[in-house]
Amino acid sequence: MCDNGKIDILSMLPDELENAVAELGEKKFRAKQIFEWLHVKKVSDFDQMTNLSVQFRSVLNQKFCIKSLFICKRLESNSDNTVKYLYELEDGNHIESVLMEYSYGNTLCVSTQVGCKMGCRFCASTIAGFKRNLSASEILLQVYTAERDSGRKISGVVLMGIGEPLDNYDNVVDFLRLLSCPEGINMSLRHVSLSTCGIVPRIYDLAGLNLGLTLSVSLHASDNKERSEIMPVNDRYDIDMLMKACRDYFKTTGRRISFEYALIDGHNDSMDDARRLAKLLDNFVCHVNIIPVNKIKERNYSSDRKSAQRFRKYLEELGVNATVRRTLGADIDAACGQLRREYEI
Ligand code: SAH
Question: Which of 62, 99, 232, 252 could form a disulfide with 83 if both were Cys (CB 3.0 to 4.6 A apart)?
Answer without folding.
Answer: 99
